[in-house]
Amino acid sequence: MKYTDDQIADIGEEIIKELKTVFDPEIPVDIYELGLVYDVQISDEGEVLVIMTLTSPNCPVAETLPVEVEDKVRGVEGVKSAKIELTFEPTWTKEMMSEEAKFELGML
User: Name one Pfam family in it (predicted).
Assistant: First the structure.
């Protein structure tokens, strides 16, 4: 069964809610607000690709954070499969953080 655009949008909203429950252990802000999630692609079959980065290539959670993200995304109703693609292009910078994250960290 193929999902409609509205169903895909609803799944996308739920995925973002889940991503906002995943925190970088060194920074008390979720990965979505930190700007670590570059893109979320959802096919009309419910296959999800999350393109994300880490604060640095040497991040101590480089092994576990993508697995946690994949598990959270896979648990969203309507998601048939989930794949995480790590990239370091473009390199993450503090400017990628949301205003909310900057405020939370006292940067505003």
Answer: FeS_assembly_P
Q: At what angle are helices 65-74 and 5-19 packed, to 10 degrees?
A: 140
CATH code of residue 97: 3.30.300.130
Query: In sequence order, which ranges of the chain are alpha helices (DSSP H)?
Result: 5-19, 31-34, 65-74, 99-104
Range of the domain at 33: 3-103
Can you tell me the mean pLDDT for 77-81?
A: 97
Mean pLDDT rounded to a whole number for the chain: 93
Report d(CA 68, CA 66) in Å as an integer. 5
Is 108 among the domain residues?
no
